[in-house]
Amino acid sequence: MGSRKERVLVIGGVAAGMSAASAAKRIRPDMEVIVLEKSPFISYGACSIPYYVSDEIKDYRDLIAVSPEAAQNERGLIIRTRHEATAIHPDTKEVVVRCLDKNTEERIAYDKLVIATGAVPIKPPLPGIDLQNVFTLRTLEDGLAVKKYIDNWSGREACVGSPECVYVKSPRAEGKDQPRAVIVGGGYIGLEMCESLRKRGLDVTVVEKMDRVLGTMDNSITSVVEETLKTEGVRLSKETTVLGFEGTGGKVSKVLTDKGDFLTDFVILSIGVRPESSLAETAAIALGVNKAITVDEHMRTSLPDIFAAGDCADALSIVTARKVYIPLGTTANKQGRVAGENAAGRETRFEGVAGTAQTKIFDLEVARTGLTSLDAERDKIPYFASTTQGRSRAKAYPAGKPIFITYVVEKETGRLLGAQMVGKEGVAHRIDTLATALYGRMTMDDVARLDLGYAPPFATVWDPILVAANVALKKMGRR
Ligand code: FAD
Q1: 385 and 441 both lie in a single domain
Q2: Mind listing the pLDDT tens digit for each residue in 187-231?
Q3: Active-site residue 47, yes or no?
Q4: 195 Cβ closer than 6 Å to some ligand 1 atom
Q5: Are residues 431 and 404 part of one domain?
Q6: Which one of 42, 120, 464, 469 is separated from 261 by 20 to 30 angstroms, measured CA to CA?
């Protein structure tokens, strides 16, 4: 090791990587913490990209939590953007790094390594998939490219995507026609983009392979979402498989499917992600579910002194105690912090995930935690599902909205396995109570007994969560 400082090397500079680096430096300021990031950006919220494209967020720089300069000056980290790790040598504890601007290569030694390489969009080898204007939406650069495309079409001054560029609105936008969009994939990102593009006045079609949007969520919830898509003028083609793309002049003009062709000006391909675990795999680090890097509760990989966190890693389901791959920003931050703390010598644990997620689709709040019916079927857990309609406010109080709740309950024990909700208000945060119930391994009896608050503007005297628990108990013959 010579006289150099003890070193934590982090590969990947977004949610998991920056959380790990900051935690390690906070605990051990004497250690040198280096972050390698192949893109020009670090520490940004990809979750806000749909609101940047919709123009609700004007300046992409608002998506960035910490600039490389601030990370260096205020947190004492060494940030190397446009540096790609190309190989890990666990035997010599070195990483091969390519500087993408200078096209040079060097080896950087580490004492502890954190792999936080995230995930990449799934891009199947379909004919025409590499045509111009077939976009994926994963990185800030992807978000800049989509917004630039729409802005250029409508005649606005486009953001050129350089870190210095500020979004400039031009009056030339008025009165211009808009491009047509086909979104392939009706998952939460695809549907958030529906809202985003409709807000920009675009004609939007969603092509979805399954018989419903939002993946494995129950029909009781997704049918409400599909109704809203229809009301908002989004065309939805379900049970439709994309076969390829056709173009004119190198630009996509048609999406070919088993249900016919869809004319379009651009495509957003949003059919999921896969963990970016290729570096780890080449270094003989064990992979598990979905080829994500297998980690223990300390975020340790199968090799000594190498940790992994975020969308490249797996996690333990607190519901089934099985390994799962549920890539979410909230998990990436938490896993990153635990990986960083342990890399700095602490003994902290990441207990696992419930898969709690919220999304806004037009004026709907949609949320889930734990297992859906399809998840329970896949895991061969005997269950029943119970759906209830409640209200967001007391009946006498104006403007209350319906809330639909579906519980997935273990048949034998009455244990809550998962919950899903949809409604125009009072959904996004209510799900957290049920996520907490999952952590407490609560039964329907336990949930029905919770002392939840009441005031007319916020709930009914029996909160929808309690009403739904009583309905589930009735189904079990317990009421
Ligand atoms: P990433 O964000 O993928 O970052 C990994 C980084 O590693 C990348 O910058 C990559 O360039 C870099 N890298 C990879 N390989 C190398 C290498 N060899 N050398 C150097 N650098 C490398 N999650 C939520 O919880 N809630 C939401 O509402 C939500 N909304 C979302 C909306 C959108 C549009 C998108 C795209 C994602 C959303 N997510 C949401 C998911 C969330 O953004 C991700 O879970 C999170 O970004 C994962 O963080 P990460 O650090 O693990 O990986």
Answers
A1: yes
A2: 999 999 999 999 999 999 999 999 999 999 999 999 999 999 999
A3: yes
A4: no
A5: yes
A6: 120
